[in-house]
Amino acid sequence: MRCFALGLGLAVLAFAAPAGAQQPPSATSVAVNPQPPPAAAPLSAEQLRTVERLRSAALESDLAWRIVEDLITEVGPRLAGSEAEARARDWAVGMLREQRFSNIRIEPFTIPYWDALREDAHIVGATPQPMVIAALGGSPSTPRGGLEAEVVRFPDMAALEAAPDSAVAGRIVFIDERMQRTQDGSGYGAAVAKRGRCAPVAQAKGAVACLIRSVGTDPHRFAHQGGSSRQSQGASLPSAALSPADADQLARRVARAPTRVHLNIEADMREDAPSGNVIAEVRGRERPDEIVLLAAHLDSWDMGQGAIDDGAGVAIVTAAAKLIRDLPRRPRRTIRILLAGAEENGVHGGAAYAREHADEPHIVGAESDFGAGRIWRLRTRFAEHALPYGRAIQQQLAPLGVIPGDNAAGGGADIGAMRQAGMPVVDLSQDGLDYFDYHHTPDDTLDKIDPAALAQNVAAYAVFAYLVADSDWVFTAPAQ
Ligand SMILES: [Zn+2]
After folding, report:
1. Peptide bond into 120 cis (omega under 30)
2. CA 345–ligand 1 middle distance (angstroms)
3. Co-location of 9 and 120 in the same domain
């Protein structure tokens, strides 16, 4: 996921989302963990028939699979601001036209570009050892030819923060914190803090570089890419993630004797690189100005193919909207697809979308950016008066194996700015037990997507989006 000020906060919200923490001012009107659940609002006979039709059509359709397969095959990895990301936007416009959506457009913006041209590290001395690393997004280059310094290891960020400057100055800081594997991805929120925070904290104490144990759960000898802290905190320390095996090795070496590491990063950094959001709609039949927002992001890191992050999300939200587009009677409100650009290096697409569209009435938003595992839970973030309709949606998702969640949904990074502007959100929570084995690695490839699970995602998104778009419920709290 993401890195800079906005991104880091959102990442924590999206994955850790402690109920009640960091909520907007209207939080007092949001019921958390309502007990007992409210009675479900009634649905019309037509809505019930339509939901049944959407569920079975989604489970029988391979459209989402064809979309993600085509994106991976035709475009592949698509680093934010790169020529490949521009090709992905063109691909998306062509694909959305083919599916006959309305109001298809690219909304351009510019971003600070970053790419690693070189990323090498090794332990130096009498018994040198190679190490596998990935430079962190936003990391500056080391001095030409690299830098060399003694390593100081910390078990977590708190230990670095507590350390005296004298223990850190002139050294390479190594944060050796592990990530917990969880179904809902909540281990990520805790583990990712070091990716954004190491450089600014270490730099303030006089360090020369940061190494972190990769933010991931796999045993493979590769490192996980991810953004660090370039713009948000003014840090300019070269930073990289170590593969799990190399983090283990470095920890053993440091425990035995003073250990020096040579680190060489060459980064291509430019201002004002082109990026953009791709938008398409299914126009509502009665209230076309009212928007149900379905988001995913088009960019990816570039060691893998960007299949689960976030080609899957692009395919899920598009295929769900397409099923609704093909209904004999469209829902009352507009369904808008947002395929955001430049999420990975700073959630620039989500910010650009909010700048352009925050004043339009957004009824509810959802984002698919957690791979392609089956959806197992629906969480809402609705005003209390709207909880009966949330309950009705949950009941219609039950045949897909989706259980009711609480009313403390986090949304996602790309819709985070809209959520902060007052848009209600839901989380269609995916099973993410293995997501961080692949996330931001060379293993983020098409074969990691299970077509049946992908279709179940489409079914859940289609049912949810149809039911909110065909209602006249308002999910926000009334103005105080
Ligand atoms: Zn993502």
Report:
1. no
2. 10
3. no
* Length, in residues, of the chain: 480
Q: What is the pLDDT of residue 236?
A: 82
pLDDT of 398 higher than 90: yes
321 C-alpha vs ligand 1 centroid, how far in Å? 20
Distance CA 379, CA 419 (A): 15
Residues 6+ apart with CB under 8 A from 228: 3, 136, 137, 138, 139, 195, 196, 198, 199, 210, 235, 239
* Amino acid identity for residue 49 in this structure: R
> For position 52, which CATH number holds?
3.40.630.10
Is residue 242 within 8 A of residue 143, CB to CB? The reply is no
- State in Å: Cα 296 to ligand 1 middle: 8
**DSSP helix/strand/coil, 58:** helix
Residue 6 scores a pLDDT above 90: no
Is 379 domain-assigned?
Answer: yes
Phi and psi at 356, nearest 5°, equal: -80, -35
Same domain membership, residue 395 and residue 312: yes
Q: How many CA atoms lie within 13 A of 317 on its CB side?
A: 31
Does 479 map to a domain? no
pLDDT(34) > 80: no
pLDDT attached to residue 7? 36
**DSSP designation for 393:** H
**Tokens (6 digits) for 313:** 């999300």
Condensed to tens digits (0 to 9), the pLDDT of residues 341-368 reads 999 999 999 999 999 999 999 999 999 9
Cα 24 to Cα 323: distance, rounded to the nearest angstrom: 33
Check: CB of residue 335 under 8 Å from CB of residue 475: no
Q: Is there a contact between 89 and 278 (Cβ–Cβ < 8 Å)? A: yes
Residues 315 and 424 in one domain: yes
Asked if residues 352 and 107 have their Cβ atoms less than 8 Å apart, the reply is yes
Pairwise CA distance, residues 416 & 428, whole Å: 15
Report the separation in Å between the CA atom of 370 and the middle of ligand 1, taken as the mean of its atom positions: 7
pTM: 0.91
Mean pLDDT of 375-393: 96
What's the structural domain count of the chain?
A: 2
Q: How far is the CA of 63 from the centre of ligand 1 (A)?
A: 21
Same domain, 328 and 385: yes
420 alpha carbon – ligand 1 mean position (Å): 19
- Compute the chain's Rg from CA coordinates: 23
**Ligand 1 centroid distance, CA of 8 (Å):** 13
In the three-class reduction of DSSP (H, G, I as helix; E, B as strand; rest coil), residue 265 is classed as: strand
Q: Which residues does residue 114 pair with via DSSP β-bridges, in sequence order?
A: 269
- Classify 185 as helix, strand or coil: coil
Range of the domain at 192: 114-269
Q: Are strands 133-135 and 239-242 parallel, antiparallel or unpaired?
A: antiparallel
CA of 42 to the centre of ligand 1 (A): 36
